[in-house]
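Troubleshooting log. The previous structure file for this entry was overwritten by mistake, so regenerating from the original sequence record. Sequence copied from the archived sheet and checked twice against the printout by T.R.
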Amino acid sequence: MSNTSRARLVAAAATTVLAALSLTACNDGTGAQDEGRAASTSPSSAASSPAADSPSPAPSAGTDQSSSTGSKGSAGSSGSGSAGGAMTAASPTRVSKAPGSAARPVTCEGSTTRTVAAPLTRPVNHMLLTVTNTGSKTCYLYGYPAVRFGEAQAVPPVIEASQPQAVVTLAPGESGYASVNLSATDGSAGNGYTATSLTVYFQGRSGTGSTGTAAHPPLPAKGVHVDDSLKVTYWQQSMDDAVSW
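Regenerated output below.
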């Protein structure tokens, strides 16, 4: 082969190599640009749906969720809404208390009263019994005092005409009264004696027998004279009514 032919072959080969190199460089640049554009312009699945990956914040206590979604909103109005209202109502509710057994009147008796026995100068041969309610509840003085002087076995009778129209009612601190006719003023009654002690029994609502604790009011040191004419009045709301018998 001549030198001229070799030169032409070498030149042709060189041209071919240069063309191949240019094509390769062009392809590489375009590919890099395409990949970069794809990475920057094509959002990932995580970026395109943030709600799927990040949870919604939980509602605070007492918040009505009726505005969230359709059917859940209805349920929230009747269920969650009412529960929320109950939770936000922090202030206590005043409840009216119905009167219970603590407010009901009881029967007056020795443990919740103070009894005083005082002889009177007028009417003569009379003694006034004063019962004061020392308890915390209103009490009823039923019937009349069943009194026993000294060791007497019988309870003196009551003056029936002295019965009041209503049961004597004592609020705490109030007093009720009864008088005791100790002896006949003319000395006509028999079996007289001097008594130095007194026991007062309280009647219940039935009017038969005694109830609760008896009272033991002191008598004057010299005692009191009693005889067969001994009798008592019913309990009275006022002192004047008691001593009028």
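Helices lie at 3-41, 45-48, 50-53, 70-88, 239-243. Archived copy saved in two places this time.
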